[in-house]
Amino acid sequence: AVWRALGEAFERPWFQVVTAIPGTELALAGSHPFSTYALIFHLEEADAGCTRIRAETRAEFPGPAGRLYRLLVIGSRGHALMVRRMLRKAGEDALEGRRAV
């Protein structure tokens, strides 16, 4: 359920799935004029039948506009808050069984 909820949480036009290994990894990538980025989720078995999700971000911010964009998005902690919110929502959806595996 976590895998499905995580994938559905990231159905956004600015991401495309580049790697999908069910139950193990989900990698999304995208780009726009200020950045090229990837968001990679690693799923691991945890205690008592739970799943631990780790998020890894990779990004490049080319040129002066990219550096300013990085300052606004990363420097403001906006990116960290957005990823935490998405992870929390995926976990809540999985626990409530709203998404089928």
What does this structure look like?
- The chain has helices spanning 2-9, 63-73, 78-96; strands at residues 16-21, 25-32, 35-45, 51-60.
- The chain is α+β, with helices and mostly antiparallel strands and 101 residues long.
- Helix 1 (2-9) packs across helix 3.
- It is elongated.
- The chain is built from three helices and four strands.
- The chain has a four-stranded antiparallel β-sheet.
Distance between the termini: 5 Å
Helical run tally: 3
Radius of gyration based on Cα positions? 15 Å
What class would the helix/strand composition place it in? alpha+beta
Defining traits:
38% helix; 101 residues; 35% strand; alpha+beta; four-stranded antiparallel sheet; single chain
SSE topology:
Blueprint: H1 2-9, E1 16-21, E2 25-32, E3 35-45, E4 51-60, H2 63-73, H3 78-96
Antiparallel strand pairs: 1-2, 2-3, 3-4
Helix pairs in contact: 1-3
Précis, in short:
This protein is α+β, with helices and mostly antiparallel strands and 101 residues long. Helix content is 38%, strand content 35%.
